[in-house]
Amino acid sequence: MSRPTRLRERLRRWLFRVSGPEPTPIRLGQRRIFVLPTRFGLALGATLMAMLLASINYGLSLGFALTFLIGSVAWISIHHAFRNLVDLAISPGRSDAVFCGTPARFGVVLHNPTLRPRLSLKIWPTGVPNGDAPFDIPAEASAAPEVAVATHVRGWLQLPQLTLETRHPLGLIRAWSLFQPDQQCLVYPAPEADAPPLPHGDDPRPGQGGRGRGRDDFSGLRHHQPADSPRHVAWKTVARGGPWRTKEFEGAGSQAVWLDWHHLPPAMGVEARLSRLARWVIDADAAGVDFGLRLPGTHLTPSRGPAHRHACLAALALYGLPAGDPRAAP
Asked: Which keywords label this protein (predicted)?
C-alpha cells in the first residue's frame, strides 16, 4: 500500500470513526450520519445563485420569491435526508457458506424503531460500485437486504465496511453512514472442475457378491456416457452446475467411500488437493452414500446428510490456516 493510500485510509477512519468490526447492534446516531449535496444539488445551488444575482441586478420581486422558495425546499430536503437514516439499528443476518469464486451473500438486518418509514435506502460494500435497487423499511419494522462480497480465498471471510445511503426525497442531498458489523461467512475451497470419479470405498461392510455394475449398492461415480440410463445420472451434481456423472452400483453389499488426502497424487499441491476433495464431497453427497474424510490431523468418520457435508467442507476450508490468520477464526 502506497503512502498516499495509507494517508487517505487514516483520514477516512478518523473522519468516519470506523476502524474495524463493531459489536452489534449498531445504532446510527447523529454523529455517524454525513450529508453533502449531490451533483444535481450542486447544479441547483449554482442555478439559484445565478437567479439571485439576476433578481438583485434587475430588482425582480418574483425572481426573489422563486429563488427563496426553491432554496427553502432544497434546505428542507437536507433535514428529510438526515431523518431517513438517523436512529436506525443494524444487526447481522444470515450468511450461508459458499464456494470460493462464488459471491458471499451477507444478510444485514436494519430495524426502524420509529413511526415514520425509511424510503429509498441503498447498502453496499464501501469502495465497490453500487448496482443494487433501493429498498424501504416500514414504520416499526425491519428489512434484511443482502450484500454481495466477492470471494478469492478459502476460510472465514469478514464482512467489509458497508455504506448505507439515501437521496430521498428529491435527490438533491446525499446522506450516508459507514459501519462494519462483526459478521463472517465461511468460504469452501473451489471444487475441481473436471475431477476423476469418486474412489471406491475401503471400508467393506457385510454383504455377498463381488464388485460389479449391479443395481443394489452405490459404488462410485464415473464419467457419463451417452448410452447410460438417465436413471443412473447424478442429477443433483448436474443441477449444481457440475459435470455429468453416472452412478455405479455393486451387485450386493455396500461400502463407505473414503476421501483420503494421502491417496491423492504426490505431485498435487495443497490447494489442488483441497479442490479435488471438495468435488468428491459434493459428488458423494449428491449420490447419497456414506463418505468419510481423512486429512492430516483430521479424521471424519463416514456419514451422510447436510451436517456431515458441511463438516467435511468446513474442514477443507480451514485446513492448514495458522491460528493468527484472520481466515482461520470465526
From this structure: Membrane, Transmembrane, Transmembrane helix
Query: Shortest CA distance to 170 belongs to which of 72, 86, 88?
Result: 72
Amino acid identity for residue 308 in this structure: H
Residues 30 and 175 in one domain: yes
Burial class (CB in 10 A: 0-12, 13-18, 19+), 290: buried
Q: Is residue 328 part of a domain?
A: no
Q: Alpha carbon of 55 to those of 46, 67, 126: distances in Å?
A: 14, 9, 43
Q: pLDDT at residue 202 above 60?
A: no
Determine the average pLDDT of the residues in 130-136: 84
Last residue of a domain, one of 156, 187, 218: 187
Domain shared by 18 and 132, yes or no:
yes
Query: DSSP secondary structure string, 197-262?
Result: PPPPPSEE-S--S-SSS-SSEEEEEEE--TTS-GGGB-HHHHHTT---EEEEEESS--EEEEEEGG
Q: Is residue 329 part of a domain?
A: no
Q: How far apart are CA 53 and CA 70, in angstroms?
A: 15
Structural domain span for residue 11: 3-187
Q: Are residue 12 and residue 132 in the same domain, yes or no?
A: yes
Q: Which three cell numbers stand for residue 14?
A: 478518523
Mean pLDDT score, 297-308? 91
Grid cell listed for 100: 470460493
SS3 (DSSP) at 121: strand
Task: State the amino acid at position 245 in one-letter form.
Answer: R
Number of structural domains the chain divides into: 2
Tell me the CA distances in angstroms from 104 to 70, 147, 236, 292, 310, one per residue in order: 44, 8, 22, 27, 16
194, containing H or E segment: none
φ, ψ dihedrals at 118, nearest 5° = -110, 125
The mean of the pLDDT values for the chain is: 85
Last residue of a domain, one of 159, 187, 215: 187
